[in-house]
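Crash report, auto-generated. Payload:
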Amino acid sequence: MAERSFADDVAKLKLRRGEEFRGEGILAITKALLQCGVGYVTGYQGAPISHLMDVLADAQGVLAELGVHFEASASEAAAAAALAASVHYPIRGAATFKATVGTNVASDALANLASGGVTGGALVIVGEDYGEGSSIMQERSHAFAMKSQIWLLDPRPNLESIVKAVEEGFELSEASNTPVMLELRIRACHVHGRFIAKDNRPPAMTLAQALENPRRATERIVLPPASFLHEKEKIERRWPAAVDFIKSHKLNETFGPEKAAVGIVLQGGMYNGVIRALQRLGLAGLHGESRVPLYVLNVTYPLIPDEFLGFCKGKDAILVVEEGQPDYIEQALAAMLYRAAGTTKLLGKGLLPMAGEYTGQVMLDGISAFLRQHAPALLPPEHCAPNSDRQLPAEIAALAKTVPPRPPGFCIGCPERPIFSAMKLVEKELGPHHVAADIGCHLFSINAPFNIGATTMGYGLGPASASAFNVDAKRRPIAIMGDGGFWHNGLTSGVGNAVFNKSDGVILVVDNYYSAATGGQDILSSRAANISRSTSHPIAKAIRGIGAKWVRQIDRTYDVARMRDVLREALTTKDRGPKVIVASSECMLNRERREKPIAAKSIASGKRVVKSRFGVDEDICTGDHACIRLSGCPSLGVKTLDDPLRDDPVAAIDQSCVGCGNCGEVADAAILCPSFYRADMVHNPNGWDRFLDRARRAVIGWLQSRRAGRRLMLVR
Amino acid sequence: MNDRVIKLAVMAVGGQGGGVITDWIVALAERNGWYAQATSVPGVAQRTGATIYYVEMTPESAETPVLALMPSPGDVDILLAAELMEAGRAMQRGFVSPARTVLIASSHRILAVSEKAPPGATTADATIVYDAARKTAKRFVCADLEAIARKHGSVISASLFGALAGARVLPFDDASFEATIRSGGKGIEKSLAAFREGRDAVNAATPEEPAAPAPAALQGPAHLLPGYVNLTADLEHRFPAAAHAMLKAGLAKAVDFQDLDYGRQYLDRVAAFLPYDAAARDHALTIEAAKHLANAMCYDDIIRVADLKTRAARFARIDREFEGGIRQITEYMHPRGEEICSLLPAPMGAAVMARPRLFRLLDRAVNRGRHVKTSSLFWFTVLYLLAGLRRVRRRLLRHQTEMASIAAWLAKAEALAPRRYDLAVEALRCRRLIKGYSDTHARGLSKFDRVLSALPLLEHRDDGAAWLRRLREAALQDEDGSAIDGVLATIREL
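Recovered output after restart:
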């Protein structure tokens, strides 16, 4: 499992009725699931919902007590498919993943689930990775909800509302026999807040009870003719049931005065941003007391026409605040107004941008523009005239050229760095190649200093995305994927596909023992002992098992010369068929997290411990920075010397170095320079260490002073 | 609205532990009866990229406040920047406004890849960030919080938390700051020490300017020192004062590299430029000759590397930098046939180089990575003996190659000096392009040759010096010097 302990968080899952929970949004959801009597939780890790998975993985005790099953699924598709347990049995289940990428993968299962419908409440919790901090293409989960008819909840981003949405989501799902999707944006997942807890509830029916009393109902299975009936049932029975539930339980909320000339319709997730804009305009109080009527869609699909039309009644204009595109909600609301022959003006996109995150500034600009046009009387005078073009002060403008971009990159000591150092060295010999990249930390290779990788087509799809290049040519394509992507689907879509189609390309599997980019969760090939999962299944064995013949296993990626030689061999060998290289070394972030405290403890308790760090001899370094261009390690920087003879700053390694050895290995493999050295510090040396050290120092010292007595030397 | 909300953003580099300080700030607020909400956008940005954390807090009341989940330009009270350029980024994003924002920054730098990868000097100019901070922030406090944290074996969260306390912008007392750290659990005493120094550092009247380092000086046995004193006196006598500092550095380097005779040779060669120089030109020609000739004469051969690697001063420096325990040193070296050949007496070395098959044999025997333990007696002695070859260096192949190259370069500059002073200065400066070892050295040499190949085209032009400078700057932009070709093409079309 991830080399982090979530023991404190697990304790929060045990809070009793009336006790206050304080913590992160995603943890609040985890607690809410237990309060709702959930029977099982499945998921696939990925920001921003990894924490939910990590905590549940550590909470086996709590889960066992309640009889809740938790499964770290092989993929989002597997996680969503598991919700099938709620089709025939009145068991509540939840699946969670990162959206929209996870929803893409899960969509087959979700569509089947939604067609047949559910008996027990089925909740799909998606972490909507949109806007600042996102690592994926910018799309919306909304489309998935609409196309499969899954109800979509988008609660206000505070813990009380989020927890309530989980409870209501299960109820809505059961009332309408439809799976429900709960959408949470990045910041809502990570928001620190509070709510008053309830007791955890064991599931009404356990999975074991279901297994021992199996049920089936042919009309719930997606096969003709039932599938045709499902579509009708969705419209004729499930939709109206959902609308009734949403209305009668008041899932959507209204705030502000009953009567006003204007109003704002917003997704629940936009609430705090809208209120902040209104606060800054003097139109809302600290606790959300708004002077502008708000209709908050905590359910963004389906929409409730009479609620909406009621809200529009008597208003001259309303503003729709809907983040992202296409503007599904705005279009639907506009159609409702039109059909009802409404006279209320509907505004939204245009005043607010069609694309991109609704940041504080965007919200302030959009809402103030709306009010300026349609309710200027509400606005304080300073906001009535729009700001003329704000000119940046010269000193801020100067920053644009100074402040360097800082995209994410490989961590200090990352075992993936030497792989790309080696790849750069091979490209120097054999020329540039087409490299198909994949999702995972290794994708950082696309940035400086490596600049390697041409496309990324989805998790585990690196080799598949190079499959078209299966033609005779003087150069072979290189495809990369991580161990996470490999087990997610790359074994079949990548390696299996290449074997079957007799591809001649190179597949490089980056194995760092974890699903590292998502937080270091265990996967099939992880090396650490894990009591609740079966690990230590070698990737190379699976690759051979699926039929690949040319397979090379590298057990220390830091050996840049070997890495380079194997890559060169793969690119030049006469052997036909896919050439698969498995490059394995443990993720340094996880390794350090585990080893550092152990080493510190050992040193403190007097045990002999050797710790290594690298250094650069600044007199020998000539300031060419070739080493940096082959590494980019954050701990390898440059420093300017106080020497009038030297123009160029020299390489320097700071104390954050973890001694991985990449810089030294690169200097050796690329034949750069002899500036690098490794210093091994022997803590708590034994008698032999001390004797040897004394003897060495005596002889070396004597030789050094001998030379010092015969020549002039610079002393700084 | 009179409702009081304090809005605080933390801008950091992934891996600095922005989450730790955010948790502390929330705990601090809650401890003091405030309602706090914090958010962040972790995910992959945590991996060494720029990240942002955001906290809003307001005094506790019966009702739950509605707070924002992200900072807005012009609406931030306190901005904590855990690195200097992140402070710059905060200002760029408009999070620092003169009316209300107190900017608390660590002055240390974590270099971005774009700043350190090019061959030349491309580190971002910190003064631009300081200027902007002084003008843009309501109050700007700054200290090297990373150094403070490191000094106490802690992390920057602790010293930054201290700086936040020291800036007196939150209505909470020091005791509750400290209590917050104490309730955290890990490394409490170290964190507290870093916290306290961080707190005091931002209140120090003026940041201490680091003392200028003492110029490098030669040390050695009594029988050699008078010779050096004489050379220095000679230098002061022959050269204009403006060039003294550079010449002294160069002289020291040359003597350190070889011996006193070598130092004299150095001074004589620089003196050849004196007749063409003038005070009106600030003695640029002499100074540049002094600088680049010193570097050229002290070329990077195996003898020099072995010498530097075995010095007592180096061992002492490593002992200082790597404290605790017994230290062992392993060097990462990779000599090739070329380097070994260049160590042979000139005729013999040249003979081997001229026989490809023999050379390949030698290369195959030596060309491999060698990770040698200089702290062990065997490898120390090997390097020590190699360093001892200094005494016969003048007879070795590498020396003769270097001397020929230097002579050709100086001759070009000297020929230009009477007619094209500026161009001569630029030609001298081009020596900067030759650096490094092995392939890097070969690449540098080729860049140097290509840049100087433009001299015949430039020596008749009044703007020749400017073009040569452009060529040199282009050569420093990238590794293989492809930018040179573009400038060369332009020059040919002039």
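Post-recovery validation: Chain B touches chain A through 141 residues (CB under 8 Å).
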